[in-house]
Amino acid sequence: MSKTNNKVIKRDMSTFNIVFTVIVVLTNVLFSYVFFNLTQYSGLSKFIFIVLNIFILIVLLALNLIFIITIRTRKSNMFNVFVALCVILFGVGSYGTYAMVSVNTNIDKIIDEGSTSETIETSLVVYSDSGEFLIKEEADLEGKTLGVVTGSNNYDLAKKQLETNKIKVSYAEFTDNNELLLALFNGEINAAALPSNYVGIFEVNDGYDVLLEDTKVISTFSSVVEVKATVGSDKDITKEPFTVLVLGVDEGRSDAVILVSVNPISMKITMSSIARDSYVPIACYGGNKSDKLGHARVQSRQCTIDTVSKLVGVPIDYYFESNFKGIVEMVDALGGIVVNNPYEFVGQSSSTQRGHYTVWVPAGTDVPLNGEQALAFARERHLYASGDFQRQANQQQVIRAILTKAMRTADLNKLLNVLKAAGDNFSTNLSVDQLIDLFNHVMKKTGRYYDDSHPENAILIQGSRITGYNSGIWNEAAQLRLSIVRLFEGSIKDTNEAITRNIDMNSKITAPKSWRWDANWIFTAPTISNETYSEQRIIDEMPDTVINFTGQSLGQVQGWASSRGIHIHVNYEDCAATKACGGFGDGVVIAQSVRPGIKSSNVTDITVTLTSNTGAAAPTGGVYSITVRYVYQDTNAEAAPTVTFNSNPDGTYSINSPQIGGYVAHPGVVSGTATGPVDVTVFYKKVEPTPTTSPDPTTSPDPTTSPDPTTSPDPTTSPDPTTSPDPTTSPDPTTSPDPTTSPDPTTSPDPTTSPDPTTSPDPSPDPTTSPDPNP
Fold it and tell me: What is the pLDDT of residue 586?
């Protein structure tokens, strides 16, 4: 049997030698590539690295030795061993090479070095609140005004496009896209050159969604441009502290902004979230103009970096940017993460179309979430009382959970998938060498940590946010209230000090006044920022605006309008015929001619559309119940009893509002034509007293004027005994009263007239009349 297995192969081995020589050489090359690339990641585990490399060397030596023996001895058993070993090692080497190529490729994708190519897509946009667009195509822009942002790629592309098509326009330049869009809404320009995703960028602004529905894209074009990368610092980040600005980008906007400081020596990290709606000076806007922080990213990434750096007062060394898809894919690649969530809700998916609330997020402690659920958890704000502030805390919780899961994972395939997800959706200006050195440094530090099952605890992460308060500003041009967050100066200062302490090795540290030690005490990092500060808050006064009448009755609408002097006109929708009432009941508003949010003082008439589910014709008149309520505007308390009466047969009605001393009724007369029951509220506004005018001491009588000597008093006239002299007025002593003239009792003296200092009181006032005690 042994003789059969060890028989010599006598046929020509030339072909075999050539083929397997090539295979052996390739296997050596593949293993050598893996060997040298693994050296970069020795920090993962020194022991594993040494064992793996010794194994590779032994395997390669064995393969080469068996190959040589097989060729020289031509023994069949050696041939079989060699073929089996060669196939196995070639497969292992191929997979190892694939893994290393995948790692290096995805790291290269993440790294943003030098100039990169980026496709810029620009749309020419027009606006019409009537739905009738006079400009329908590029050619219609001839001789019109096109709004552009100064120095933007959209400006350059639009100008090139129109010049190519020989269309002459006038250009109106603006500092940012928000200002440009508002100018379009306000009719200052005929069209605007905006990013093609302008709807996604601005629809999160209060009131913009309605205006954006009335816009139309007449042309879209694109071009590939070279974008200069943001150059990072050349620090040795394994020995020197550094800062990173983490950006979560959605539709070109910064949806998440977190300033991170890292001290590689103490292994301490601070994370300071900044609300995307923070109203701060934008670095790339002219004149230090303020805007929402999230809008800075629309201009450029560098604009956001410079804005945050200037706001907090610390240099930013690097950035790390991700889109929503990156979070979903990374969490899924890790097999999910675990978070604490107090409320169950259905959140928004990663779909680029808004309003896709289809992701169920369960409540509880240590709740497992997949990628879509993790993203929905990080984006949710409406559910929480603190709104965007809680969302910032959730975003930090997701980041911690991803780091924890990644550091605990030993599955190579999972880590490769994580890296692939990062390569497709993340970018940073950290260099490859810096990333690898940092990775090795962290693995060395965590390798020394006593708890192998929780290596993440070797890193102290102190999370916080720059606190502030919700506010709003009125935009007169767009007739909109814009919701903003005003940041506390004290919180900005505390954040600056916390980051400085972490990155400045020579910073002064305030020693604690007291201390305690307990073996069972679990350390909790102190908060960086307080929730509130004793600072004067800026409260912008908002005008009264038109509300959303949808679902209200005609009486409710008329009650709101009558107190503001606005006339309501009514149309009816035959729901039975058109089936366009969306499930609303009979006699409620489904449309209005003036959008909600418009300043009410600018409106005189509003037309509302009411549902008519019976299919009958809209009423044209009839006797209806009219209810009028009277309340004080400042307290909302009842000012007079509620009145209920019937309208005239043709539906008309009119009633005067009762007079109340010291108050003015709005409206003074409640009137109109009813098409159904009417419920009106009359508001009584307190009348402010008119200030008394004192005589002007700088005014003296004209010395050149003397009384007319030809005029004498009429002796037949006596003064009105019912009239008392005005004690504030001194009669002219040089003038005698006209006896023929009685003073007009209906006329009161002009309080704004300064008395003549040359006059004296009437020497014979009516003894039956006493002076007015309240002049």
Answer: 75
